[in-house]
Amino acid sequence: MGGAISLLAVNFIIAQIFVVAFLIVAAKSRAKKPAIWCAAGFTVASLSAVFEAVLPFSMVPKLFAVGAFASVLAGFILIRVALGLFYQVPARLPLLAGFFLGAVILDLLIYDLPRGTLRHAFFYQLPFFIIQSWSASTIIRSKRRSPADWSLCGLLVLTSIYHLVKIYAAVAAGAGTTAADYLGTPFALISQALGAMLIVATGIAMLSVMVKEIIDEARASSELDALSGLCNRRGFVDRVMPALHTAGADGPGTLILADLDRFKLVNDTYGHHAGDGVIRQFSRVLVELMPSRAIAARLGGEEFAVFLPRLGLAETRVLAHGMRAALAATRIDGLPEGVKITASFGVASIGPDESLESAMQRADKALYAAKAGGRNRVECAEPPANVALVGSLRAGRS
Question: Which of 161, 191, 222 is at the close of a domain?
Fold first, then answer.
């Protein structure tokens, strides 16, 4: 019995460590509610160790035996709620409550059945198998498919199978003739040891998916411009660079650089609040008109960029003219009636194997030409040197 009691103590301590870990995650992540539900789940499930430790010495063993069963099952149900919130597959709380109540009633009904029999073991382990399978199905039904998500799903499936295996293990190894005898059986040692391993593995997997969420949030925050909602320069480069390596025969696409005309005058005349409104409105124009696969960024100040994968120069020029016209026709809050804001655009096609820096330099020259030509214009850059060279070679051969 001493070995089983020691394992109960270990399981209890492990559960409390995870409670603290999930509360820390709740304080750091947007997934606050799922983490709190997880902490609650581990807290409630850990009470089973207390019930089982007291059980052999109690005058009312049935109360503590059913309490141990109910606390583990309730903990699993709370974790199912947490997973539903995290994976956006909401749990039906009345259904879970009904399931819990039915399972506890079932445990009361089978309490006096001979232990170590297939019938008792089956009905005892069945609710645990169902709730763990239910939790695994939550991840399968969600749209998240990262390795961390699949690892957690696999562990939940493994845990559900573990409860099926326990049916036969209870019969083969012997679970005692009464609930009070359980801790003195070989089955108790095996069950508690394997249970501890699965608790640790599943807890770590759940923490991993939530910590990954924190890391992804931090990375996204560091790559977004707070005022415009677009990428910042770092985010733009990080997103565009992979696309340059998956280019088609005509190159990876085109690039637009845009600059708000006389933006300093807007700030000086109407204040920075009005200037912020201009930046937000122009950002909305870009997002509304660009294709869904395009990537837009505020590079800094009043300068913006849009990468359009696999789009030709002529099409991009038309799109840039549409953006220019849309901004000029937009009424911007904070500016007097009749005050129009315009922007100048430089467009460049990105050649095969051309670096992003090179393409941006050519687009910037075209943008400078649009500014010099009177602003509120779209100018196209010369093709990259390697593309021009290929074109001249083809002309010579013909």
Answer: 222
